[in-house]
Amino acid sequence: MSALQPSELDRPALARGRSAAGADPGTASAALRRAEFGDRLRTLALAAPLLLLLALSFGIPIVLLLSRAVYDPTIADALPRTSQALAGWNGQGLPGDAAFTALAADLSDSQAKGTAYELAKALNARLPGARSQVLKTVRQLEGAGGKPPLDIMKSVPFWSAPGTWPTIASGTHAITSFYLLSALDLRWNADGGIERVPPEQAIFLQVFARTFFVAAAVTLATLLLGFPLAYLIASVPKGLAAILIVAVLLPFWTSILVRTAAWTVLLQKFGLVNDLLLWLGIADERLDLMYSRIGLIIAMTHIQLPFTLLPIYSVMRTIAPSQMKAAYSLGAKPFTAFRRVYLPQVFPGVMAGCLLTFILCLGYYITPALIGGASDQLISNFIANYVNVELNWEMAAALSFILLVFTLGLFGIFARILGLDRLKMV
Amino acid sequence: MLLSPYPTSGERIRVALLWLWCGLVILFLLVPILIPVPLSFNSGAFFIFPLEGLSTRWYEVVLGTQRWQSAIGNSLIVAFGTTLIATTLGTLTAIALSNEKFPGRRIVMPLLLSPLIVPVVITAVGSYLFYARVGLASTYAGIILAHTALASPFVVVTVGASLTGFDRNLMRAAAISGARPLTAFFRVMLPLILPGVLSGAAFAFVTSFDEVVVVQFLASAGQRTMPLEMFIGLREKLSPAITAAATLMMALSIVLLVVANLLARRGQGRRATSG
């Protein structure tokens, strides 16, 4: 291609190059550069519509979502006076009476503006139990009947409890690390250090560990099932290989939802899998495979198997049989030849397939939602739940942030070791 | 290649075990996608073999009741809209990327592919958050826009592959013969890369037609697509109508993807003929 470089200039560019050179007695190379620049702009303009659309339909939504993980102005917006009163507070003990009075005024205001519930919820996310205390105090302030707000505030023990005021103070910063830390079961302690949350509140590390465990189990299972089949397909004559590859591609082309639906039918208590296990004598009684971890892993393995197998197969296909013959003729036993000659060459394919499956497993949503039990929900299911049920966008955003970091990190490794073009499967 | 030139009996056993293992793996691959097919023709209301009798009653439910009909209609609206936009813009982008003068291909390509890598829940939740602000949530336009992001990478990659076999000198020849760029595109380039474009379109259609997570977040009750009806059905009550819907969806996806792959292969095959 590089030998053809001069003819790479297309006609309009040449024409413009000529006229530019004619009008301006500058060097021809300057005109050429200008023409090249125009060319670049035109190719960019061709790609621009899709790039803009992707920015709008994909880029902005994700940036907006992730920003919710670190930006939460609810408390700061609802407590302007308190924020001001706490500006000079050192965080030790209780703040002065002025802060209590300011908080009382802010709480009354938020009740008048109808934002009290939002505020109570936001505080509750950071300080479990705060919701009822805030709403109770708001009601007392409303029906005060001449009682000074300061006395009301002091009469509710919650507002003098250790931990309350540092939480309020931290909430008055709209930019917060609270949710990201929470997503890793961490929090700021009173001394300004980071500590583990108490065990009864810690849930997310467990969810991440579960997601990684399921992803690893599925990856291992697809490798155990897929490697021998890929090897067989690469070894048999072309016609037979074509038939075998169809057996891999048919499920690959069927949607995840349809395959998950098929597995929900198969895994029923009176479904085919249980029939088979009884008939084979593997199980003595019908097992609860639906809503179980093992059912989830079986279904995910079925869906991911082609993703692991196809990259391995595409590498195996390129290894010439003569290499193994050469190894045999040099006296290698079959296993030695396989280990020393074959495996090292297949390794990139194995890496590609396994990494791809592992990365895709981290983001699984449909299959755990339909087949997994309550204790088999993966990180994606928690994200959806925080949006649909708890309406806690910040927590959903923080979990998304961490899931995305893992996914892109692993994908970065994938792209660095293996190159992006491996994604073009079949 | 499976057996060495002078196989020992141990080696024969190993190869026999390999065949046995692979046979089981193929059963594992095929049985689950084939099982819904006979079940969808069951006249009974249970998922039990042997079938109680053959009937098409569950297909009548899927094709004949209002709930499923509107789902099929919605699926078609969304999938056709997505295909149209993703194919048009994706083809333009693939043409731009195939030009060596395209600036920053190394940055643009990963960005284009990123919708395939980012977990779809994150895409769905983010779209819901943003689209709700700009009034696109619960609209067909919103769903089509989000699906276009998921589908366009397939178009860019397939059309890009068919362009690697395209000889750009043909465009220069057309230009020298007096064709304007647009004429040259429609008369010279498009006919030659058409297999790739059609294949990309089929990929885009299937991507949208099979998608459920984004729809779950963006669709209003009246905009439920077929996969969403299935998802809801699977959660609430397992009716054999689901096996009929699954069979229909599977048949459509497989037919379209077989066609897409044949076309893609043909499109790339031109590389061999054009040098």
UniProtKB/TrEMBL annotation, chain A:
One of its GO terms (biological process) is transmembrane transport. The keyword Transmembrane helix applies. Residues 208-414 form the ABC transmembrane type-1 domain. Residues 1-25 are annotated as: Disordered. One of its GO terms (cellular component) is plasma membrane. Keywords: Cell membrane, Membrane, Transmembrane, Transmembrane helix, Transport. PROSITE patterns: ABC_TM1 (PS50928). Pfam families: BPD_transp_1. It is found in: Cell membrane. The chain crosses the membrane at residues 44-66, 212-234, 240-258, 265-282, 294-315, 346-366, 395-418. It is a multi-pass membrane protein. Its main location: membrane. Signal peptide: none annotated. Belongs to the binding-protein-dependent transport system permease family. CysTW subfamily. This is ABC transporter permease. It comes from Mesorhizobium loti R88b. The lineage of its organism: Bacteria, Pseudomonadati, Pseudomonadota, Alphaproteobacteria, Hyphomicrobiales.
From TrEMBL, chain B:
The keyword Cell inner membrane applies. Pfam families: BPD_transp_1. GO terms for biological process: transmembrane transport. It comes from the Bacteria. InterPro entries: MetI-like (IPR000515), MetI-like_sf (IPR035906). Its main location: membrane. One of its GO terms (cellular component) is plasma membrane. PANTHER family: INNER MEMBRANE ABC TRANSPORTER PERMEASE PROTEIN YDCV. This is ABC transporter permease. It comes from Mesorhizobium loti R88b.
